[in-house]
Amino acid sequence: MLLKTWGLLLCLLWMTCTAALSQNAKTQVMWLGQSAFKIVTPAGKVILTDPWLIANPKTPPEFKKLENLGKIDVLLVSHAHWDHFADAPAIAKLNNIPMWGPGDLNSVTVALGILPPNLAPRFNKSGTVTPAPGVQVTAVHAEHSSILVWKNPTTQVEETHFGGEPIGFIIELENGFKIYHMGDTGLFSDMKFIAEYYKPDLVMMPIGGNFTMGPREAAFAAKEWLKVPRVIPMHFGANPLAKGTVKEFQKFLEGSGIQVLEMTPGLAQEF
């Protein structure tokens, strides 16, 4: 009985200390090119978003070997396009963790035999999951498309499959810090609702144009609808059609007071 009591007290002490450390610790964010980010939470959980790494011209060479990412705890995929989905199945299998993405994309992934059901759970817009202790992820709307191009191993023919509806993510960490990863998106007025309801502290926003918002549209969304203090530009420079630049984005944001965090792939920033 005494041993059981001491065990309970030690467990409670450990939980209290962990919570205190999480409150004081920083969040590390590393951009790996396009929409891929490696986020280390205050409690040390590692979140990976939209992992197009091996063929991504912006990804540092050391991270083109997926094992060099280290242990991944949470894997998020916003939609089925190859520059977001490509390396996700391999990372899910390597770490034996679920790939969290649009419910219908994951259904197709299972049906095609790309992932087993236990590594492709389903959720959808406004759904909230807890993929790691203390981490909550909510799926939100994104204005885009989503198809999965898959090479049939039997016929060797590339097939086009429905990829579910694209989503963005509200990622809430152990200390309450919230990141809004917008995924691929054009302008839509409910960005204002998302910002007012979820109150993100940091936004990861596409600026490349052609496939997503360009610098002008992204700046309008940041100033008029999101009104957040800090924005990380993403989804530019890896595809010649996505010509938007951080310099253009900054120009359209002049006078807004919004901090644009220009990140170098492979170098982490703390928040």
Principal-axes shape call: globular
H/E element order: HEEEEHHEHEEEEEEEHEHEHEE
Helical content stands at: 25-40%
* Assembly state: single chain
Radius of gyration, CA atoms, in whole angstroms: 19 Å
Strand content: 25-35%
Find the count of extended strands (DSSP E, 2+ residues): 16
Q: Identify low-pLDDT runs.
A: none
What is the CATH level 1 assignment? Alpha Beta
On the 0 to 100 scale, the average pLDDT is: 94
Description:
By secondary structure, this protein is α/β, with parallel strands linked by helices. It has a single domain (27-258), classed as 4-Layer Sandwich (Metallo-beta-lactamase, Chain A), CATH 3.60.15. It is built from 7 helices and 16 strands. The strands form 3 sheets. Strands 6-5-4-3-2-1-16 form a 7-stranded mixed beta sheet. Strand 14 (230-234), helix 7 (246-252) and strand 15 (259-260) form a beta-alpha-beta unit. Helix 5 (191-198) packs across helix 6 and helix 6 (215-226) packs across helix 7. The protein is globular.
